Amino acid sequence: MIHYKSPEEIELIRESALLVSKTLGMLAAEIQPGVTPLHLDQRAEEFIRDHDADPGFLGLYGCPSTLLTSVNEQIVHGLPNNRPLEEGDIVSIDCGAKKNGYYGDHAYTFSIGEISPEVEKLLDVTLQCLYKGIEQAHKGNRIGDISYAIQQHAEQHGYGVVRELVGHGLGKKMHESPEVPNYGKRGKGSKIKDGLVIAIEPMINLGTRRVKQLSDGWTIVTADGAPAAHFEHDVAIVDGKPEILSTFEYIEEALAKKMVS
Ligand code: MG
Ligand code: MG
């Protein structure tokens, strides 16, 4: 069953989503060759707790960390470890926070220094997929319209669209109905109505769409070892239109500052 949110609930989800956005912005300033995902995880946990909130993933389904940090061929659910990030890597950082009983859930794929043009394009196209999906999240459409738009755009570029993991409703629970797949058919699935709050999160592979899970029971990697990207926003339907509750602004500001210095 889909729980449609009141305007008050949407504001609470926005508050949690923006805290995650700020957390990712804080991390953006720190990410550089030599930094470990474990260090980023500790910084994120402190930051979230300092803002009177709890990490959203820690303890959820037994998750041991605040962040999920997925490097290169890791698509999602990578567990933070001590391997320093290296020039040319990409790292997808997924972060959740819970404040006042409501969750935010938001992800961004960062480049470590210079990356290959091929991978740069994967990141650009995955980000475009996210916004193409969001554009479809309006009254009169169905979830399948979001899914179709994401899949079309990714496949046009020859990329693999992950099937095993999907976007989702969001609120008092991290994962609520409906599922929001990154593949599907136009006009299918639940109707999009005011009060719907969903996390839209394309997971796009440079090569095959096939995935494997590592023996840690968490990390999902591409079956062919090619890199993958993941971007996620929290979106509410307000007055028939999509309103993005999270923002990449803090990340973009931090990255712009790094360029200058
Ligand atoms: Mg997420
Ligand atoms: Mg999510």
Q: Can you describe what's shown?
A:
This protein has 261 residues and is α+β, with helices and mostly antiparallel strands. The chain has a single domain (7-260), classed as Creatine Amidinohydrolase (Alpha-Beta Complex). It contains 5 helices and 15 strands. The strands form 4 sheets. A 5-stranded antiparallel β-sheet has the order 8-7-9-14-15. Strands 1, 2, 4 and 5 form a 4-stranded antiparallel β-sheet that branches. α3 (117-135) packs antiparallel against α4 (143-156). The mean pLDDT is 98.
Task: For the structure shown, list the relevant keywords.
261 residues; alpha+beta; Creatine Amidinohydrolase; five-stranded antiparallel β-sheet; four-stranded antiparallel β-sheet; 25% strand; binds magnesium ion
- Unreliable stretches (pLDDT < 50, length at least 5) are none
Reported for the largest beta sheet, the result is: 5 strands, antiparallel
CATH H-tier superfamily: Creatinase/methionine aminopeptidase superfamily
CATH architecture: Alpha-Beta Complex
Strand percent estimate:
25-35%
CATH top level?
Answer: Alpha Beta
Helix content: 25-40%
Alpha carbon gap, first and last residue? 50 Å
- State Rg: 17 Å
- Report the CATH topology name: Creatine Amidinohydrolase
